[in-house]
Write a structure and sequence with these properties.
Number of domains: 3
CATH architecture of the largest domain: 3-Layer(aba) Sandwich
Structural class: alpha/beta
Strand order of the largest sheet: 3-9-8-7-6-4-5
Number of helices: 17
Oligomer: single chain
Strand content: 5-15%
Radius of gyration: 23 Å
CATH superfamily of the largest domain: Type I PLP-dependent aspartate aminotransferase-like (Major domain)
Bound molecules: pyridoxal-5'-phosphate
Largest sheet: 7 strands, mixed
Number of strands: 14
Helix content: 40-55%
CATH class of the largest domain: Alpha Beta
Length: 491
Amino acid sequence: MEKMTVTFQLSLATIHHQFYSHSMIIVCVCVYVCLCLLPGGFISTVCCLILKLVSFQNVGAINFFCNYEESRGNYLVDVDGNRMLDVYTQISSIPIGYNHPALLKLMANPNNLSTFVNRPALGILPPENFPDKLTESLLSVAPSGMTRVQTMACGSCSNENAYKAMFIWYRNKERGHNIPSDEDISTCMINQAPGCPDLSILSFMGGFHGRTMGCLATTHSKAIHKLDVPSFDWPIAPFPRLQYPLEEFTRENAQEEARCLEEVEDLIVKWRQKGKPVAGIVIEPIQAEGGDNHASPNFFRSLRNIARKHGCAFHVDEVQTGGGCTGKFWAHEHWGTDDPADIVSFSKKLLTGGYYHKDELQADKAYRIFNTWMGDPSKNLFLAEVLNVIRRENLLEEVTRSGKALLNGLYELQAQYPGILSRARGQGTFCAIDICDDATRNSILLKARDKGVLLGGCGDRSIRFRPALVFKEYHVHLFLNIFNDVLAQHK
Ligand SMILES: Cc1ncc(COP(=O)(O)O)c(C=O)c1O
């Protein structure tokens, strides 16, 4: 059985974090230099690594440096040898834990060597086994109603191309055919309509869909992501602000959702009148980066109907929710509908990025949806094996079980520390809780790390829990005990 050893050590990363959060980078660097000069190698590993990196990169977001060779399962090891229970997993991106034996075996298989060594430009020169590997991996978990998939590299790149697919689909629908006019061709080259049409995508306040230019226009979680970057005049609808636990506030929450849905329809009409019709609606099944905000299955089904009624494509961004962490492979499966979306994008736990889509959203000409890599076949190999492990070890059931224990534990702690904790919420292990203020949240995150638990924040003052699918009830209890100790220090 895995046993956690926690070494108490003041790490330089902690100092860095505290200093950075107070915008004292210069002072911080001076502290690093002084500490680096200390005899005896005290915290010098992290110190020197940061110093090396800071000379050519912004290091403001770095927590600490890791030893991935020594990391196993749910435990991440840092360069000082501290072993931490990882409840954040590289921003929700490690599906079956660190160094899973099934993945190591795959790497050791000589038949796979050429896939790892020769990364192809998939859009023009795919390997022989590419169709089979996609069938075995991504297509075996395709969302209901979708038989087509386009691989990409990261989440933003997937969403960016999904948006383009929606615009192309919408314009062809407007034209009634897919032959552009001479004017379309000439005007698109100088960024003018009708070749570059005034279409829009409706997104939600608090949503996060990435930081590339198109995605950023639909991201509204934190100003730091958007500041100084030009954007589009696209409609932004309110996302329901629900009260938790959801079961205790059904009437109030239904009213709040109805208000938001009404606003969505109003915005669609307004933007059509402005001459910027809404080609697509994009939404996360649970707003993650924006603060783990939930909405009911009925809200999503109604929104899907609104999209259909107004002729907009419906894009569900499952980059963070996809891959099993909610207890179902896709979070939208909780909505109980056979026709959840026109596009579903993914990345993170799926290892490769990409998006599934309905037949009609297939781009009609080569190079319209294209880039050099178009994904990475080695990630499809890994994904096929990850899916085998998920099935073989019944990991979705495991997530449901651990998720229940985690949420119940959070409810108990919330009752115990009402001055600190509120709004515990979750689906599967995709859970979160609010902290009384941002400063206390950050202090809790640091203290938890010093006690051997790695957590992440989201929204203004929430902590999000994003363990791997191999996070068992045993790990939940380990975590809850440590979290309890940390909270007691803040009482
Ligand atoms: C819902 C969602 N969409 C898109 C993205 C962007 O993905 P990436 O950071 O891989 O570009 C993220 C990343 O956190 C996300 O959570």
